[in-house]
Design a protein that fits this description.
Helices cover about 80% and strands about 0% of the residues. By secondary structure, it is an all-alpha fold. It has one domain.
């Protein structure tokens, strides 16, 4: 997969999460931590 395509897809996925995060009833610190863990796992296997 082209690296530019990966960057565009990652930007679309992580940028669109703001709409979903507003609906989650967790503290912002916990949401940020979970997003960082998920991103690390996803990028680690990419």
């Amino acid at each position: 997969m082209n690296s530019t395509f990966k960057i565009v897809i990652a930007t679309l996925i992580w940028g669109s999460l703001g709409v979903l995060v507003k609906q989650i009833n967790l503290p912002s610190l916990e949401i940020a931590f979970l997003r960082a863990v998920i991103a690390t796992l996803v990028l680690g296997f990419a």
